[in-house]
């Protein structure tokens, strides 16, 4: 690929990029119509690192609030995970680096004026993925069900950016929905930390709603914030049960950063054109749900200026909450909160198959078990109903299943997992080719 910078260009090959020395300082591009400067950040061996955060890491770029950064990302393991790579090589790299994530981080980016206690605002303007992606099941040591799916499998797929679709299995079409699995700032604690678990600093949130046109608000813990991105996805289900979505890299990840003073968040929030998303994360899904409820009540109190008891009632009345992932040590949940306070409450979750969706449901006092039961039931249902190999059903659930949490009531909590039947309908744009 080539990323032009002034009159010079970076030439990127698999795993490394090279540039004339005169190009190294030319990070600002001419771009009319933007309020701040536009910086270009290619993914090179000098601007990326694999698997860890460190708040002492030297920034690769410094920007001011209101500036835009147009960057590239790499595939996992410094672009080792590309078509032609062997599964054995990937598994060997993974097991040889315990305590470290697979993600190739682009950054960190230092934001002038960002101080601990501030909120960093990161608006995603545009995402352009590579033309290929991959889903992997590591043998017996990762994912939601490593003992039930002990065999490894690596599936590369073509990403049809024009038709905005990915033929994941023969005759199975997953909509293209690119987003960064990892987007976050440096942790407060000194030292090196794995990129696998998400936290208050953002990081590996794996929230598929974080697409172009949305904005992440994340608390700042160190001077300059130190912003990283990685784990680029072309698509992912709510749950990401086999550890991976459709993993890819971005030819262009275009963001605008700003600093919000006088606003303190305990946890990140996400703004979409129509909703605010509140988040809750913990190693225990039950505790993640408790955090989510607390964050949602807090948001409604701020948004509507009501008492906490009334906010609790509003939350339950408009409850629309999902499980983002259960495979990154720290598990994730999030709720949609409409900007329009007069919006109708969402329809009740389906309890059985509908004309548009396959549906599985599980109830348990333990949310972790309810999620396990509902998602495994969906994997089995897909294997039986669509005559899929179980590993393929596992992978399809990871990239396309939508697991939702029913409104809390009584002792048990229910998880409803849905898979759209439209995945088996060939899109018109593809059929016309």
Integer count of domains:
3
- Beta content comes to 35-45%
Q: Rg from C-alpha positions?
A: 21 Å
**DSSP strand tally:** 29
What is the overall silhouette? globular
Tally of individual helices: 7
How far the N terminus sits from the C terminus, by CA atoms, comes to 26 Å
Question: Biggest sheet: strands, sense, closure?
Answer: 13 strands, mixed
Corresponding CATH architecture of the largest domain: Sandwich
CATH topology of the largest domain, what is it called?
Jelly Rolls
Spans of 5+ residues with little confidence (pLDDT < 50)?
A: 1-24
Rounded mean pLDDT score: 92
Portion of residues in helices? 10-25%
Q: What is the CATH class designation of the largest domain?
A: Mainly Beta
Brief summary of the model shown:
The protein is α+β, with helices and mostly antiparallel strands and 433 residues long. The protein has seven helices and 29 strands. Strands 4-5-9-22-11-19-23-24-26-25-28-29-27 form a 13-stranded mixed sheet.
Please explain how this structure is put together.
The chain is α+β, with helices and mostly antiparallel strands and about 425 residues long. It folds into three domains: about 1-260, Acetamidase/Formamidase-like domains (Jelly Rolls), CATH 2.60.120.580; about 275-345, Endonuclease I-creI, CATH 3.10.28; about 355-433, Acetamidase/Formamidase-like domains (Endonuclease I-creI), CATH 3.10.28. It contains seven helices and 29 strands. It has helices at about 75-80, 85-95, 285-305, 310-315, 365-385, 390-400, 430; strands at about 1-5, 10-15, 15-20, 30, 40, 50, 50-55, 60-65, 70, 105-110, 120-130, 130-135, 155-160, 165-170, 170-175, 180-185, 190-195, 200-205, 215-220, 225-235, 245, 250-260, 270, 275-280, 320-325, 330-340, 355-365, 400-405, 415-420. The strands form five sheets. A 13-stranded mixed β-sheet has the order 4-5-9-22-11-19-23-24-26-25-28-29-27. Strands 6, 8, 10, 16, 18, 20 and 21 form a seven-stranded mixed β-sheet that branches. A four-stranded antiparallel β-sheet has the order 12-13-14-15, covered by helices on one side. The radius of gyration is 21 Å and the shape is globular. It starts with a strand and ends with a helix.
């Amino acid at each position: 690929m080539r990323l032009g910078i002034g009159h010079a260009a970076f030439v990127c090959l698999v795993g490394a990029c090279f540039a004339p020395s005169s190009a190294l300082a030319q990070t600002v591009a001419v771009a009319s119509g933007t309020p701040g400067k536009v910086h270009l950040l290619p993914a090179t061996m000098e601007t990326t690192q694999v698997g860890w955060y460190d708040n002492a890491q030297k920034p690769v770029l410094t920007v001011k609030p209101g500036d835009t950064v147009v960057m590239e990302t790499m595939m996992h393991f410094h672009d080792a995970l590309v078509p032609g790579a062997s599964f054995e090589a990937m598994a060997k790299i993974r097991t040889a680096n315990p305590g470290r994530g697979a993600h190739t981080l682009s950054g960190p980016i230092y934001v002038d004026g960002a101080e601990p206690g501030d909120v960093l605002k990161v608006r995603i303007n545009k995402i352009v993925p590579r033309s290929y992606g991959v889903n992997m099941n590591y043998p017996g040591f990762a994912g939601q069900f490593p003992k039930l799916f002990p065999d490894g499998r690596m599936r590369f797929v073509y990403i049809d950016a024009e038709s905005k679709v990915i033929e994941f299995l023969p005759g199975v079409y997953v909509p293209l929905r690119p987003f960064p699995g990892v987007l976050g700032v440096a942790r407060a604690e000194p030292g090196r930390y794995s990129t696998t678990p998400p936290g208050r600093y953002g990081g590996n949130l794996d929230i598929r709603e974080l697409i172009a046109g949305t904005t992440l608000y994340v608390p700042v813990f160190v001077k300059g914030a130190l912003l990283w991105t990685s784990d680029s996805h072309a698509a992912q289900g709510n749950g990401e049960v086999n550890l991976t979505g459709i993993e890819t890299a971005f030819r262009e990840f275009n963001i605008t950063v700003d600093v919000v003073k006088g606003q303190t968040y305990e946890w990140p929030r996400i703004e979409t054109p129509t909703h605010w998303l509140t988040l809750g994360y913990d190693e225990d899904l039950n505790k993640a749900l408790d955090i989510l409820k607390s964050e949602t009540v807090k948001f409604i109190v701020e948004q509507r200026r009501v008492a906490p008891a009334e906010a609790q009632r509003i939350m339950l009345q408009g409850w629309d909450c999902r499980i983002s992932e259960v495979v990154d040590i720290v598990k994730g949940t999030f709720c949609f909160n409409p900007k329009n306070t007069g919006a109708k409450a969402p329809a009740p979750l389906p309890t059985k198959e509908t004309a548009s969706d396959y549906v599985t449901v599980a109830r348990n006092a333990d949310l972790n078990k309810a999620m396990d039961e509902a998602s495994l039931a969906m994997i089995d249902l897909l294997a039986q109903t669509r005559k899929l190999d179980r590993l393929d059903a596992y992978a399809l659930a990871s990239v396309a299943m939508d697991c939702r949490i029913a409104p809390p009531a009584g002792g048990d909590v229910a998880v409803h997992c849905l898979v759209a039947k439209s995945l088996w309908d060939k899109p018109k744009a593809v059929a016309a080719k």
